[in-house]
Amino acid sequence: EELILRGDLYRIDDPTDGNFCSEAIVSKDRSRAVLVCYRRMGGVNNEIKRVRMEGLAPGRRYRVPELGLTLTGATLMHVGIVPDYTKGDFATAKYHFEAID
Question: Strand (E) positions, the chain?
Answer without folding.
Answer: 8-13, 20-26, 32-39, 61-64, 69-72, 91-100
